[in-house]
Every structure is written in structure tokens, then in C-alpha cells.
């Protein structure tokens, strides 16, 4: 069931194995944030149709990162929409780096596509009625971005922050210390609503980010302890 978060901003909830998708109907152009899996494309197409839109009515697709569950169905928009991702995600998508994207291995119905625009942090996307700022938030993987709408105080987070501060994990090319730094920077923003890639929408972004930082710090300490133990073990063996 599609949810209207703000006038002309919709969440198309996740289908099996995919992420949530967000639709922003701009003054002149329409944009998707993430596309879910290729396997779930028929459901996305049906949701768009309920809102009176066809695939060709989507002008921009912005990917929060390269993982298959967020990007697999992008191949269906690639011919007609401009596809954008952070340059560190765009590079992996272009090279079809399946070790990181998992598109070929986990989403067999997707076909290769490319990012037309390689985003940098602070790139502004102006839809007329809404303006979104891309924020590079590495950690989950190196090419993660969040999209921030300052007037509505909305933050679209992909897998960087989930409701309740749940960590979505540190995957290949990710880093716990980068993750902690990204959350620290996000904590300085004024946010009313968190729009994540998975789980529920949240009206407590401050609490989510703060809990996420706590969990990340715990994970960092655990990993540090594990590394120290392994190093000690190595010294004993030599
Ligand atoms: Fe992910």
C-alpha cells in the first residue's frame, strides 16, 4: 500500500527481498529513490500505475547505494530516465562488481545498467517543489548516500540509518569507522522524518541516529577486541 508522506512524496513499500522505494513527483520531473529488485518490478509498475504514472514518466532514478535490493529494477528505467549514484557506487555498478552489488548473483532478472550521473556529496537535485541534497554517508558500503530535503526536514537513508537505530551491517567496501563518522555528521541535521530503505518510517530520527551510533560504537569495540585477541594469538605462535 503506497503511503503519501508529504504532498507528492510517496513511499512504495518493500516487496519480498527488496527495499522500500520513494517516489517524488516534482513540479516538472518525477524521481525515484531506489528501485527495489528486478524480480519485484511488476509490483512497482502497478504502484506507479495507481498514481497515474508509466515507467517513461520517471525522469530521475537516484540510488542510495549499489546493493541489488535497492538497485536491481533500475534496468527497467535506464532507457528513459537519468540514473544517478555516488561515484563509488556508480563505479561498482559500471564494472558489474558482483562481489559488492550482488545484482547478478541475487537478482537474476536484472540486466546491466549504468549510472549516467556520478554524484558527489552536496550535489543538489532541484525538483521545483522539493530540493534534495545528496550527502555521502559511507559505512554500510563506501558509496552510500542519504538524500536530505531541508524544508520538509526529510531524510532518505537507504541502509545508512534504519528506524530504532538498527544497523543494517557493514558489507564489502564498508567500514565501521566511516559509518560512525557518517552518523555523527547526520546527527547535526534538523530532521522530522526518517525514510529508510527497510523497516518503518520514523518520527524520531534523533533517537534513531543516536542509537545507531551506540550500536556502531559497540560493534567497533567488539571488532577491536577481536583483532587484538587475534594479534596476541599470532604473537604467541611465533
Ligand atoms: Fe545495502
Topology diagram in text:
Blueprint: E1 3-6, E2 9-12, E3 21-25, E4 30-33, H1 41-50, E5 60-62, H2 68-71, E6 82-86, H3 87-94, H4 98-101, H5 103-106, E7 117-119, E8 124-126, E9 131-136, E10 145-149, E11 154-158, H6 176-186, E12 193-196, H7 205-237
Parallel strand pairs: 4-5, 5-6, 6-7, 11-12
Antiparallel strand pairs: 1-2, 2-3, 3-4, 8-9, 9-10, 10-11
Helix pairs in contact: 6-7
Please write the string of helix (H) and strand (E) elements: EEEEHEHEHHHEEEEEHEH
Number of helices: 7
Number of domains: 1
Compounds present?
fe (ii) ion
CATH topology description: Metallo-beta-lactamase, Chain A
Instruction: Please state the average pLDDT score.
Output: 94
Give me the Rg, rounded: 18 Å
Shape: globular
Can you identify the CATH superfamily? Ribonuclease Z/Hydroxyacylglutathione hydrolase-like
Q: Give the biggest beta sheet.
A: 7 strands, mixed
Beta-strand residue fraction: 15-25%
Q: Strands of the largest sheet, in order across it?
A: 1-2-3-4-5-6-7
Amino acid at each position: 500500500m503506497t503511503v503519501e508522506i508529504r504532498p507528492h512524496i510517496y513511499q512504495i513499500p518493500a516487496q519480498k527481498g527488496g527495499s522500500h522505494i520513494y517516489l517524488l513527483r516534482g513540479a516538472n520531473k518525477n524521481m525515484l529513490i531506489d528501485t527495489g529488485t528486478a524480480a519485484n518490478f511488476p509490483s512497482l509498475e502497478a504502484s506507479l500505475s495507481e498514481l497515474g504514472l508509466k515507467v517513461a514518466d520517471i525522469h530521475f532514478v537516484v540510488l542510495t547505494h549499489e546493493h541489488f535490493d535497492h538497485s536491481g529494477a533500475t534496468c527497467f528505467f535506464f532507457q528513459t530516465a537519468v540514473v544517478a549514484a555516488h561515484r563509488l557506487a556508480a563505479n561498482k555498478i559500471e564494472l558489474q562488481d558482483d562481489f559488492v552489488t550482488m545484482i547478478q548473483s541475487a537478482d537474476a532478472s536484472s540486466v546491466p545498467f549504468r549510472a549516467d550521473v556520478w554524484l558527489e556529496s552536496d550535489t543538489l537535485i532541484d525538483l521545483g517543489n522539493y530540493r534534495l541534497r545528496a550527502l555521502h554517508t559511507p559505512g554500510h558500503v563506501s558509496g552510500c548516500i542519504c538524500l536530505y530535503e531541508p524544508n520538509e526536514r526529510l531524510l532518505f537513508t537507504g541502509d545508512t540509518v534504519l528506524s530504532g537505530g538498527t544497523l543494517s551491517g557493514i558489507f564489502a567496501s564498508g567500514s565501521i569507522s566511516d559509518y560512525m563518522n557518517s552518523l555523527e555528521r547526520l546527527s547535526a541535521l534538523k530532521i522530522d522524518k526518517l525514510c529508510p530503505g527497510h523497516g518503518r518510517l520514523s518520527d524520531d530520527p534523533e533517537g534513531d541516529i543516536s542509537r545507531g551510533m551506540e550500536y556502531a560504537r559497540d560493534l567497533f569495540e567488539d571488532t577491536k577486541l577481536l583483532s587484538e585477541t587475534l594479534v596476541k594469538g599470532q604473537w604467541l605462535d611465533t
